[in-house]
Amino acid sequence: MTPQILLDGLRHSFFKINMIKVLIIDECHHARGKHPYASIMREFYHRHLEAGASNLPRIFGMTASPINSKGANSADSYWQKIHELETIMNSKVYTCESESVLAQFVPFSTPKFKFYQHMEIPNVLYAHLVEELTVLKVKHEFSLDKLDLEASAAESTRKKLSKIHSALIHCLHELGVWLALKAAECFSCYESEHLMWGKLDVFGEKIIRSYSVDAFRAIETCMPSGLDWTIANDVKGSAAAGFLTTKVLCLIESLFEYRVLKDIRCIIFVERVITAVVLQSLFSELLPRYSNWKTNYIAGNNSGLQNQTRKKQNEIVEEFRKGMVNIIVATSILEEGLDVQSCNLIIRFDPSPTICSFIQSRGRARMQNSDYLLMLKSGDCSTHFRLKNYLTSGDVMRKESLRHASNPCSPLSKGLDDEEFYQVASTGACMTLSSSVGLMYFYCSRLPADGYFKPIPRCVIDKQMGLCTLLLPKSCPIQTVCVQGNIKNLKKIACFEACKKLHQIGALTDNLVPDIVFEENDVEEFEKEPYNDDQPIFFPPELVNKGSLDSMTKYYCYLMELKQNFDYEVPVHNIMLLVRNQFDMDEKSVNIELEVDRGTLTVNMKYIGLIRLNSDQVILCRRFQLAVFQVLMDRKAEKLAEVLCDHTLGNNSEIDYLLLPSNYVGQSPLIDWLSVTSVTFSYEKAWKNHVNCNAGMIQTKSGLVCTCMVQNSLVSTPHNGHAYIISGLLTNINANSLLRLSDGRLMTYKEYYEQRRIR
C-alpha cells in the first residue's frame, strides 16, 4: 500500500502498528519532514518505542541514496545527514564497499559531460517580446482589478497570471522564441489534457485564457510566415535567429549522435513541466525527418500545471518498454520506480538539484554500456563542481556508513515529535496539528454536494491581530471557529480545534471519520451525471400568468428588505417582487440568510399590498429587469441595446413576475420609477430636460455629457464592452495626472492607456 494509506489507517486506528511484523519502506530517503514515512515513524513507531513497547515491526528500508539534499562539504557532514535518516528509521545503513561490487550485478551508466556554448537570442528580439508580454500582463491585471472579484479569487487569478508570464519569459530565455510560442499555445488551451491551472472564478479563467491567446499572437508575429517554413527546415539557422537556444540545439545534436542505435530508449530529464511539454512538441515535428523515433512526455500530476493522469503515465511507460515510444521527456516523477531494462540513454537537460536526484536519474539507464549525459553551460564552474561532487558522493556515503556501522541507533531527539496531539481514548485514533487540515477537508467532502457545489472550509486570517476565523459550510453542525496564535500555524490551529469539537458532538466518530452515511463512490457518480437539458422545467404557480394582459394589470407585491452583514462602500437596495398570484404563506414574513462573496445578507420578505400597472409600465419594468439580468450574468453591455429593442417583451403568456427597486416606506407599494425609467436613457434625450448645474463635462463615445448624468449610472466601456457602475467622480485628476502602477512605477493616465492601445 502507499505510505499515505498506511498512515491514514493508523491515524484512524483501523489497525495498530504492533499488528505489523515487518515494515518495508521503499525509497526511504523520503522519511524526512512531513512526508508520510516520517509521520508513520514519529507518530506511531517512536511513540510506542518510548513507551516501552517491544512488539514493534522490524524496519527494512531501501534507497539508492540515504541523502536527499544538495550534498555536503565534508565527510562528517555526509555522516550527519545519514545519521538523521538512521535515527528516524531506527535502523542502520547496510551497503557494499564500492560501486564495483554492485556493478557485478547491476549495470551502471557512464557519466559524460556535454558542454554547450551559451548564446543569447538577439537582444532586439528578446527585449521586444519581453516588453510585449509585460504590457499584456499589466493590461490583464488591470482587467482583473475592474472585475470586483472576491479577494481570494482575484489573488488566485493574479498568481496564476504571473506564473504563466514567468513561464513564458523562462521559455523565451532558456528555450527560444519558437518553444515560447508553443508554451503560449499550450497555456491558451489550459483546460485541455496538457495543462490546467486549478479551479478559478469563471471570469478569472477568461483573463488567463485571454492573456495566453494575446501572448501567443504577440510571439507569433516574430516568427517566419509561410506554409513552407517549419522549425525542422534549418535547426542551426533557427538557433542563430533565436527561435531555438544553443542549449536546445545541443540537445538535438546529442540525440543525433545516437542515431546509429537500432533500438534507442532515452529519458530526457527536465526541471519544469512546461519544458517537458514543449520539447515533446519540438521532437514530434523534428525527428520524423531524420528517424522513426517516437516521443512523449511525462510530468507530475501535482504540479498545478497539467492533469496527466496516472493511468496515462503508465500507458506511456508501457509503450516505452515495448519500443512504441523511444524518447520520454520527463520531470523528476520518473527518477524513482521506473525499471526498463532496455533503457540505454539518460540526458539531464537541466542539472540534478540534489544528490538523490542525480543517483536516481542515473539509475534509470539499466542496459549494459548505457550513457548518462550531463548537459552543462560552458564556464558554469559552480554547477560543474557540484555535479563532480555528486559523482563521488556515492563512495563517500558508503565509507561513512561502514565507518559508523557498529554504532547503535540514537533515540529520536526531543522536539521532533512534540507536535500537538489529540487522541481518542476508546479507540486510539489520533490527530496532529498538521493532519487536522486534511481531516477537516475530508469531513467537508462528505457533506451534501452535487456537480455544482462542493462544500469546503474557508479561512479568514487577520495577520495584524493574529486571529483566524474558520468558516464552515451551512450543513456542518459547527459554523465558525475562531482561534489566535502563531500566524504560520493559524489555519492548522483552527482546523485542529474544529475537528476536536466535531468529535465531541459526535459529527466525527471515535475513529475520527465523518459520521455521515454518504459513500464516496456514490458522491463521485452523482457528481459525474451530465446535466439533462430535456428535463421538464418547473415554475411556481405564483409566477405563472393565468390571465391576459389587460389595460391595467394587477400584481401582488412582496417587499424584500435586505440587510448586509458586512462592510462595503456600495449599500444594498430593497427589492420588490411583483407576481400575478398571491403566495400561500404560513407566516406574515419569511427570513433567510444568503451567503455572498463578502459575507452574509439577511433577507426579510413580506406582503405589502396590490399595485396596478398599465401595459406601457409593464413593458418598461420588463425592459429594466431584463437589462439588470443581462448585465449581472454577462457583465457586458454589447447586446443590451438589441435585447431592449425586442418588441415581444410584453407578450410572454407563460411567466409573469417582476423584480424591481422599491421606495416603500410603510404605506402602499411604491416602485422606484427613477431607476426603472433610466433604462430608456439616450444621449439625445439626456440634454432635452437637463438643467444647467455647472457640475462639469465628461467626454463619452456618444459625445459630451454632464457629470450629473453619469453619477450612480451603469456605463459601458467601448474597448471591451464591460459594464460598470459609476459610484463617484474624481474631479481633481485628468488625463495628464499620474497613475501609480502595482510595481511602483508612475505614468500618466494618457500614457497608460496608450500603452494598452486604448484610445
UniProtKB/TrEMBL annotation:
Gene Ontology cellular component annotations, sorted alphabetically: cytoplasm; nucleus
InterPro entries noted in UniProt: Dicer_dimer_sf, Dicer_dimerisation, Helicase_ATP-bd, Helicase_C-like, P-loop_NTPase
Stretches assigned to the Helicase ATP-binding domain: 1-70
PROSITE patterns reported for this sequence: DICER_DSRBF, HELICASE_ATP_BIND_1, HELICASE_CTER
Highest rank taxon of the organism: Eukaryota
GO biological process, one term: siRNA processing
Domain Helicase C-terminal: residue ranges: 251-420
Gene Ontology terms, MF aspect: ribonuclease III activity; RNA binding
CDD domains: SF2_C_dicer
Pfam families: Dicer_dimer, Helicase_C
Protein keywords: Hydrolase, RNA-binding
Record-annotated Dicer dsRNA-binding fold domain positions: 436-522
Similarity field: Belongs to the helicase family. Dicer subfamily.
Protein name, per record: Uncharacterized protein
